[in-house]
Amino acid sequence: MQRRTALSVMAATAALAAVTVTGCSADSTAATKDGTTTVTLALDWTPNTNHTGIYIAQAKGWFKAAGINVKIVPYGSTAPETLIANHKADFGISYQEGITTARAAGQDITSVYAVTQKTDVTIAVRADRSDVTTPKDLDGKTYAGFGAPYEKPLLQKVIQNAGGRGEFKQVTLNTSAYAALYAGKADFAMPMPTWEGLEAKLSGKPLKNFQLSDYGFPAIYSTLVASSDQFLKKNPGVAKKFLAAVDKGYRYAAEHPSQAADLLISQNKSVLTNTKLVKESEALLAKEYYKGADGSIGTQSAERWQAFADFEYKAGLLVDADGKKLTSAPKASTFFTNAYLPDAK
After folding, report:
1. Which CATH class is domain 122-215?
2. pTM (2 decimals)?
3. What is d(CA 271, CA 48) in angstroms, rounded to the nearest whole number?
4. pLDDT, tens digit, for every residue of 285-343?
5. Are 4 and 46 in contact (CB under 8 A)?
6. What is the dihedral sign for C-alpha 189, 98, 92, 250?
7. CATH superfamily, with its number, for domain 6-118+221-334
8. What one-character-per-residue DSSP string does 54-91 give?
9. Would you kindly state where each structural domain of the chain is located, as residue ranges?
């Protein structure tokens, strides 16, 4: 899985002002002849284990039972955040940094479901790097990244919290993180342990990981389901039914990872050809990522959203609709809602 950047999200959002997206309309929710309601969901990349709950709900008929016909929009040149904010898609797969950046700039996008509770990104080096035992040892070394604005201040904070200066070189990845490290093009990267980390291990190129939270960095919601305030206010009943099915799908994945992987693969055979990787990814997500420490699934907290928004603001990464840097930290409690979850009152 590749990682999109907030920079690409904002650029695409600005470019979409007068664009009509094929297959979607300003009001994409509509009743069909059989009485079901069509809802569009935009993917953030090709189908992968982050999307498991969606495909399970589809395969098990849970959307259909709720009277919903889900149209999955494949990932293309337009980011899900852009489609949602411009009301070209009802829901989409997103991530905390992308939503924070877009919402701070006045875009109509709101997180409604946390797919992963644990931060699904680490700082990683080759497993055989005995000279790197803590992020402090990354001073003066080379980082292979994705070009996102938040990467440098994030790494600086972690390295400094570990006792280092936070000084390093940067190169942009044009290959997988583990391949770049083993080719000697860089010393460290930030891969997703539930995919790239496993892929590295299966390829015989294992990584050594440092968890961001172990060095004082705020926890991140790495994978989210987002919608727009416009859609949610107009279709609260549909939103609740949709998320109830989604929640049921991810709960199934958390309890039955092997069967969940099989269902995901069966619906995406041409894409998910490395079945061992999919199986291991699903098992790891079920073991450590879908559920919070308290066993919660899908929920989000204001404290967690605010902590990350404060970091982005202090790093000078948040701008308003005119592209000017914010002069105060945004109130991130408006960036998400738990109101449409199955157990919400």
Report:
1. alpha beta
2. 0.92
3. 9
4. 999 999 999 999 999 999 999 999 999 999 999 999 999 999 999 999 999 999 999 98
5. no
6. positive
7. Periplasmic binding protein-like II (3.40.190.10)
8. HHHHHHTTHHHHTTEEEEEE---SS-HHHHHHTTS-SE
9. 6-118+221-334, 122-215
